[in-house]
């Protein structure tokens, strides 16, 4: 187990290094931030001074090595715009995004699993067909459009839910959370649903496919032949088997939820990382973009590791030995 | 549940299947997988149910267990278990018998145990499904059952997962699960087909011992005549969803009445036929979707005559010997 973890960590370090090079070169290729950051009426001398101050006069490889040297010490550079450490900027906004992503993922599981289970157990019922048709909508409607429609209906027409911001927050462990107040929850509901819609459909389809496949297995028939109640057959014998693909996919999806909550955060003015990255790209705030992407890479690697570990809990055949 | 069983019929044979019909209603038409199957198994007896793939053996087994899934359905006949008709029981009543009074062992031991649940979970739940005992007692019973089927250090093995067992060991676990409630009847669907010969021999010997000591009756479904010869008391031969021959295993194998049984025994390769080409029954098993009229073996039968277009009845030709044929091999029986 520890050998397995160590190997995974070394692999992860390799991935982070490779990603840092790609990100750094990629962001360099996007454009020259000097044109945006320095006012057009600055004279040549001021320009030179600013470029040197930002470290943009050095060749790319030297810039990269300096970045790498500082990154190892936990310094991902200072924002050109806010003149604050990029890492701090992102971490300030991270709880808001995490809160949104967690709410969306849990919502997807809480809604998707029961619906998928029903659709799998009674594939020919009208309810199942409605669920499956609905899941196609969830897959194919674009997030931004659904978000706008939600605002139109629930905020503008009905006036039930607020359309922007996080609402009242409670501070716990130095960060602010919306889900602990009723007002905050009403603010969280729509963006979370918007972000969850695609995932709900995904979980429904995965669960249904899993149930349909597992129900045909000999071990399910054997469980029935043992005289177990239908409840136990479904919720112990079938359920534990379908959890394996569901956990894998929702786990991996969790990473992309955080990374790509950009659209939802923009529509609902949710003050998270996604909104920060969009603003930073607009002004070519390189250190923030690079830091954001590095954090996302780290997050994906961590999530993958967690999913693999959960796998070994769910499926005893997966052994994490270094064989 | 056990109270509702009629005690007056305790003397009845453990299982009496009468004219059982199980049909599958598919888009392509009605598949008569089991069509008029009858046999009896006495207490502590083993009946070998023999036939080729698709002859309806397994569906017969599932019909007895009440595990025929849609689009299949029992459409006729009766399954008398200690005198009570299983086909008339509700699903809930049937569930209380299943795994309790009637147990089943499946063909492929690699597939019958749930891969994500430990052996103890899968055994204890079986005990608790039918009896209100403490978990500790259920565990002790499970351990004893594992020991009984010859699994070494059962205490440790209880904590294992199925993938940590070999195929033979898994089948022993499945047999141990079947034995947990000391059932009156075990339906064994080709339980040794997927195992190698030495393991098969060990398991057969143990099953035989258990039946003799506990008085459990057994329906042993197989296509392996040598297994039936060594294990069963009686034999029923199935062809195209019907029993074509039923009788004492020694008598039937020595001098079969039905031409199909005759062909089946003739097809077994053996040492004294070395050098000769292997014999086989000409033709193919007919499709169950559109069986020809009359005897379904007619097209492949060397003894078929004009009157075979009328379906023969399963009737006694000799004491204790039933055959569904107009022209059985009587002369050979007399000669023997």
Provide a descriptive summary of the structure in words.
The complex is a heterodimer of chains A (323) and B (336). Chain A is an all-alpha fold and 323 residues long. Chain A contains 13 helices and two strands. Chain A has a two-stranded antiparallel sheet with strand order 1-2. In chain A, helix 5 packs across helix 8, helix 9 runs antiparallel to helix 10 (230-259) and helix 10 (230-259) runs antiparallel to helix 13. Chain B folds into two domains: 11-101 and 185-271 and 278-335, 3-Layer(aba) Sandwich (Rossmann fold); 110-180, no CATH class. Chain B has an eight-stranded mixed sheet with strand order 6-7-8-3-9-10-12-11, with helices on both faces. Classes of the chains: A mainly alpha (323), B alpha/beta (336). At the A-B interface, helix 9 and helix 10 of A face helix 2 and helix 4 of B.
What would the CATH topology of the largest domain in chain B be? Answer: Rossmann fold
* Percent range of helical residues of chain A: over 70%
Q: Taking strands numbered 1, 2, ... along the chain, how are they ordered across the largest sheet of chain A? A: 1-2
Sheet with the most strands: spatial strand order of chain B: 6-7-8-3-9-10-12-11
CATH H-level superfamily title of the largest domain in chain B: P-loop containing nucleotide triphosphate hydrolases
Overall mean pLDDT of chain B stands at 85
- Can you tell me the CATH class of the largest domain in chain A? Mainly Alpha
Quickly count the helices of chain A. 13
CATH class of the largest domain in chain B: Alpha Beta
Give the class of chain A from helix and strand content and strand pairing: mainly alpha
The sequence of SSEs of chain A as H and E is HHHHHHHEEHHHHHH
Q: What is the terminal-to-terminal distance of chain A?
A: 11 Å
Largest sheet of chain A: 2 strands, antiparallel
